[in-house]
């Protein structure tokens, strides 16, 4: 049994320190760097909690799409569109969760 | 930066043996290039310049400084508002990298500040930007001073699709969503138009604004012969509105105000039916660039939190690509 608080708690606490204690005390030209640190911590926390859906071989899928194998009118078109949307949404949930609200 | 060597070179370039550097400070911004504020005292008085050179790790796809210098000259001749190109130094022995010196322009370039501050006169600003872009597009091949750009592509749209696929292959990370968008672009590619000089990074963040006025068009390192709609689409694409999505022209003003400025200067009408195609291409291109920036961090070539976080823009862009592909 590892000691508590765990990594997620520490990261969240560290992020609060960056935003609430360090950022107000920093010169303006360093504010961006502090915000990036906070964003990176938030992203790492989301990644820890993420559920990554099982995906087929992405390299093969990419090559098939390029070759037109899943074009409109093919039997696999609709299923491929759904799969790609799920793939993008799962990654956006970690990288840019705000984007999920915007595009549905 | 070897200030003594730089000072010696500037003395020779100006013929002013008494020239002195009074300030040399790194300016913010520029993932690919470095800009330095360079203040000098000359026989004719004080001068405020910018020294532009390469960052330690240079993107292979960007043009070298000598080319950028020639483009600035051509743009200035065409009436585009740019900083005055003054001196070019290709001698690696001076500061260790090629550089050029240009006039310093005052204004705001940082995208979020431009979006916020230009809003009250946003339509006026985007109309002025439209006129600038039309002047850039007046530069047409062939040009003896721009031979480094190579021959114009026979079909700029299809050439861009091929270029994006080549970059995806080179990067080695399979990106089926971007392939999905590129395949849709391939099926619906518009017929080619006469090639013009495209800036290829004409967007909010790369133009300096002073009130309602355009102070300078910046960052010419991706310029190439191409389809003028590529620049129009890059400027208007949703991914370059910095959160101000309702203001479709760069997050600054109305799309029609931007188009009207362009058309008034170009004397031709923009084919609006072509725009969704080029805005989808813009979104894919930015995703490819963003992924490449993260790859620079991942490879150890240039460890940077900014580059690392840029890679995390890709999934959001992919959601846009899927929506735009469906609407094409």
UniProtKB/TrEMBL annotation, chain A:
It comes from the Bacteria. This is Uncharacterized protein.
UniProtKB/TrEMBL annotation, chain B:
CDD domains: ACAD10_11_N-like (cd05154). It comes from Falsiroseomonas algicola. It comes from the Bacteria. It holds the Pfam family APH. The lineage of its organism: Bacteria, Pseudomonadati, Pseudomonadota, Alphaproteobacteria, Acetobacterales. Residues 24-264 form the Aminoglycoside phosphotransferase domain. PANTHER family: AMINOGLYCOSIDE PHOSPHOTRANSFERASE-RELATED-RELATED, BLR2944 PROTEIN. This is Phosphotransferase family protein.
